[in-house]
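Q: Given only this backbone (239 positions), what sequence would you predict?
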């Protein structure tokens, strides 16, 4: 039988009326220029509009009931908060662009390299197939079942105790009867046991990185025989 080897505020009515009039005038001007909202435009435009309204309110306030200092401070704090959020958004966009560039460079550097990435496919070529697995903990025994394209089990093997982390294995291409299987694509299932209980295990497939492409989730590696994988799905670089 063939074996598989393991790899290791307030304000006056006059002030309020003035604010309402200015607001209405601003909305009218906005509509005339095709803008959808009085709050539209850049951060600078919003600040200028706010300050104009605040100055008009203070000029038209009732001297016997002036605008409360706390209210003015609160309004200034609000516009400052809006400006800060916009600056933060701009910074985050810049950081996102930098991350994308870094991912592209890292991905391109892997072109032509052999890797182990998430998947359960195995390619048999010249009597040799390579696969792998990732364990979060050490296990007492690890069983592998290799099947053909039709789902028929061809080879069963127990690798015994395995350490946590990323591990690889090789298959010599023979079935349970010791006869060689033809070169081609196969799949495999892995069962990991610790003290008789099954524990999580991630199957890994072996392939060569042929290029890098950008998709909805960012940059992805094009791995021959596996398709696209994101950088975090690559668990080990073989060579």
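A: Predicted residues:
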């Amino acid at each position: 039988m063939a074996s598989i080897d393991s790899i290791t505020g307030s304000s006056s009515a006059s002030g309020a009326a003035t604010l309402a009039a200015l607001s209405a005038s601003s909305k009218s001007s906005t509509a005339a220029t095709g803008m959808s909202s009085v709050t539209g435009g850049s951060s600078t435009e919003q600040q200028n509009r706010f300050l104009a309204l605040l100055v008009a309110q203070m000029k038209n306030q009732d001297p016997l009931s002036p605008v409360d200092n706390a209210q003015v401070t609160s309004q200034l704090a609000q516009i400052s908060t809006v400006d800060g959020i916009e600056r933060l958004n701009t910074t985050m966009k810049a950081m996102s662009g930098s991350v994308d560039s870094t991912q592209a460079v890292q991905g391109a550097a892997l072109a032509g390299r052999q890797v182990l990435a998430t998947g359960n496919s195995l390619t048999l070529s010249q009597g040799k197939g390579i696969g792998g697995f990732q364990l979060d903990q050490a296990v007492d025994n690890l069983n592998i079942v290799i099947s053909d394209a039709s789902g028929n089990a061809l080879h069963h093997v127990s690798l015994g105790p395995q350490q946590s982390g990323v591990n690889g294995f090789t298959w010599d291409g023979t079935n349970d009867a010791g006869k060689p299987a033809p070169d081609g694509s196969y799949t495999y299932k892995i069962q990991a046991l610790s003290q008789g209980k099954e524990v999580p295990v991630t199957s890994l497939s072996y392939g060569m990185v042929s290029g890098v492409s950008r998709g909805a989730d960012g940059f992805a590696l094009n791995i021959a025989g596996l398709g696209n994988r994101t950088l975090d799905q690559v668990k080990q670089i073989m060579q």
